[in-house]
């Protein structure tokens, strides 16, 4: 019950990060013209309006840390030597381990967004300028020395805890500081390997699930956690399976707009013993694989994009057509639900593949040919068409009418039965 509650809390925090924290940190500090020098008045206005969201982000990070530590503690207790927990040790807790990995992945996402937003640094420098202005003449702004010191401290905390891009590493260190039961460590490795194998087997196929790429990042985070718990004893099979993720997925999604490179994050956070399981050339093999992928794009990109576009067109045709209304409410709604899920899977696959193509060109500083630009444009146009189909929801009125008719019929039957009595 506790694990279920904490898993629900992880899902809630993930939703908050997707809808609020990531978008705010991605665009924070952006200006129409970065070359323009801000006046003192503009600096003060920006300071008042922008400091609070960053403080909210720090509070959110504290919530994530608390949930991660709590969930980690609950899982370790289950596999402890206490006799009361022995019956639970045979229960499959893969979902709870996955939730622990997803909670850690929130930290990865925050660090990645902050690292990619260069405007955050300049915004912090502007904050420091404002503090100097306030310290020079606090009475003019209705403040005293204590208020200025408090603001200065807030800016310093933001710089140390947020802009250092070390949130994930700090949480990982906190979890690995204490010794844990061998049974828990063994279960962590086994469950992570099982999740990795099943997820990678489904990737880029018709059986791929909506959350598979997030589960993939969760598994990478759990692999790094395992290597931190036993830094001198690496699980070679788990480490190699995690390392080979780059062969099936150039980018691993944190959210729709934030992705990380699997090889780079493993190289940065795995223990030295775990990194010894990798090939001698390490990241060079990843870069070499990317170059080979980029060189063969003219053959692979059109073919794969054609498959995705054909499937998307077929889905659009079915989704925008008049639904077949049966006498069974469950049959009608189940068919529409399956259609929604199929569309979301196609959107995720098409968007992620397009992001990978763009990332390959950006990371390798390769020019984009006109042909590839046209192909990317076709993918974007299809994504836009599918988005419009989802938002307009053309047949919602028909579905609602069917539901109302079904309910009215059931109520009528109930009333007829009551009249007999």
Automatic annotation (TrEMBL):
GO terms for cellular component: endosome; WASH complex. GO terms for biological process: endosomal transport; endosome organization. It comes from the Eukaryota. It holds the Pfam family WASH-4_N. Residues 3-415 form the WASH complex subunit 4 N-terminal domain. InterPro entries: WASH-4_N (IPR028191), WASH7 (IPR027307). This is WASH complex subunit 4 N-terminal domain-containing protein.
């Amino acid at each position: 019950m506790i694990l279920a509650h904490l898993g629900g809390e992880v899902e809630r925090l993930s939703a908050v990060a997707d809808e609020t924290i990531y978008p705010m940190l991605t665009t924070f500090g952006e200006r129409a013209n970065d070359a323009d020098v801000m006046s003192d008045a503009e600096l003060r206005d920006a300071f008042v309006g922008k400091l609070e969201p960053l403080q909210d982000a720090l509070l959110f990070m504290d919530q994530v840390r608390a949930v991660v530590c709590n969930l980690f503690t609950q899982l370790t207790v289950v596999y402890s030597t206490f006799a009361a927990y022995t019956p639970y040790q045979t229960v499959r807790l893969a979902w709870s381990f996955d939730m622990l990995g997803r909670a850690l992945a929130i930290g990865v996402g925050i660090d990645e967004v902050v690292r990619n937003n260069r405007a955050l640094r300049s915004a912090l420098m502007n904050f420091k300028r404002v503090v100097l202005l306030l310290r020079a003449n606090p009475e003019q702004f209705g403040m005293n020395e204590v208020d200025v010191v408090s603001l200065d401290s807030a800016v310093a905390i933001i710089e140390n805890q947020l802009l250092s891009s070390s949130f994930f590493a700090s949480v990982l260190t906190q979890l690995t500081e204490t010794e844990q039961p061998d049974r828990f460590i063994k279960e962590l490795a086994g469950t992570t390997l099982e999740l990795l194998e099943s997820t990678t087997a489904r990737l880029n196929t018709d059986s791929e699930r909506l959350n598979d790429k997030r589960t993939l990042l969760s598994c990478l985070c759990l692999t790094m956690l395992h290597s931190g718990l036993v830094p001198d004893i690496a699980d070679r099979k788990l480490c190699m399976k995690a390392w080979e993720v780059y062969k099936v997925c150039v980018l691993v999604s944190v959210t729709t707009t934030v992705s990380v490179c699997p090889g780079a994050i493993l190289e940065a956070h795995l223990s030295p013993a775990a990194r010894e399981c990798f090939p001698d050339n390490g990241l060079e093999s990843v870069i070499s694989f990317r170059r080979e992928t980029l060189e063969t794009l003219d053959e692979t990109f059109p073919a794969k994009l054609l498959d995705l576009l054909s499937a998307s067109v077929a889905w659009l045709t079915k989704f925008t057509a008049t639904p077949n209304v049966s006498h069974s409410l469950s049959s009608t709604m189940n068919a529409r639900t399956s259609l929604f899920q199929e569309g979301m899977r196609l959107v995720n696959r098409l968007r992620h593949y397009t992001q990978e193509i763009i990332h390959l060109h950006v990371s390798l500083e390769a020019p984009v040919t006109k042909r590839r630009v046209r192909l990317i444009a076709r993918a974007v146009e299809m994504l836009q068409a599918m988005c419009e189909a989802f938002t307009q929801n053309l047949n919602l009125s028909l579905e609602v009418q069917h539901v109302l008719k079904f309910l009215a019929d059931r109520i009528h039957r109930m009333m007829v039965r009551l009249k007999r009595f």
